[in-house]
Design brief:
226 residues; alpha/beta; Rossmann fold; seven-stranded mixed β-sheet; two-stranded antiparallel sheet; 24% helix; Methyltransf_16; methyltransferase activity
């Protein structure tokens, strides 16, 4: 027994059904070897990786139609990795990453559950340099500006791993930490295109969620719908 309970749900993403194993609730916890503790993940935060959150679902739905041809893609803080699964199903060149010790296990299980090859995965801390990771044309993430300090750590990671003509797609459910992140990326030459987005069914405008699309290079002025 793994020490935590899971269930399997079927989600319609972009008109296609995906079977996803996730934790049954946020009360689940199991860290018998203290792997999460050593990674800096508290017991209160342990279960957060193992759910399909509204921001993660919106990112996956966006990736179901986004132009990914010829792009090397990195998903940061992937958790369950729904967006990476959608991209893998589309044949995209995607690498999923997280620092939770069970993220890779759940991602591999869900790939097999949907009859697709495993998604390439890297354990990635934003504050530790990783020269072997390389650079990416598109970096995506959902609810990754969770704490105030994440804006600086994530912008530093992008400085190391984004191509000169890179795109960055972040779904922010409205935690209020996107301002410092946007300013840091503008200093790196990115232009922001923002769309307000509902995070839950039935939510009325003004929506608290934001689809933050940053782009730099020759086509930085192009909007999201291109």
């Amino acid at each position: 027994m793994p020490g935590y309970d899971t269930h399997i749900r079927t989600l319609d993403i972009g008109g296609r059904d995906y079977r996803i194993r996730s934790l049954v609730d946020v009360q689940q916890f199991a860290d018998p070897d203290q792997l999460a503790e050593r990674a800096g993940i508290s017991s209160a935060q342990w279960s957060l990786f193992g759910h399909v959150w509204p921001a993660g679902r919106l990112l996956a739905e966006t990736m179901a139609t986004f132009d990914v041809a010829g792009k090397r893609i990195l998903e940061i803080g992937c958790g369950i990795g729904l967006a990476s699964l959608v991209l893998r199903q589309r044949g995209a060149d995607v690498v999923a990453s997280d620092h939770h010790p069970l993220a890779e296990v759940f991602l591999a299980y869900n790939a097999a559950l949907n009859g697709m090859p495993a998604v390439p995965y890297r354990t990635l801390r934003w504050d530790v340099e990783n020269a072997s990771l390389g650079r990416f044309d598109l970096v995506i993430g959902s609810d990754v500006l969770y704490e105030r300090g994440h804006a600086g750590a994530l912008s530093a990671l992008l400085l190391r791993h984004a191509q000169p003509t890179a795109e960055v797609m972040i779904i922010d459910p409205g935690r209020g930490n996107n301002g410092p992140f946007t300013r840091a990326l503008q200093a790196q030459g990115y232009v922001l295109h923002e769309q307000r987005s509902p995070m839950n069914e039935g939510e009325l405008p003004p929506f608290r969620g934001r689809l933050l699309y940053y782009r730099r290079g020759a086509a930085a002025g192009a909007g999201l719908l291109r």
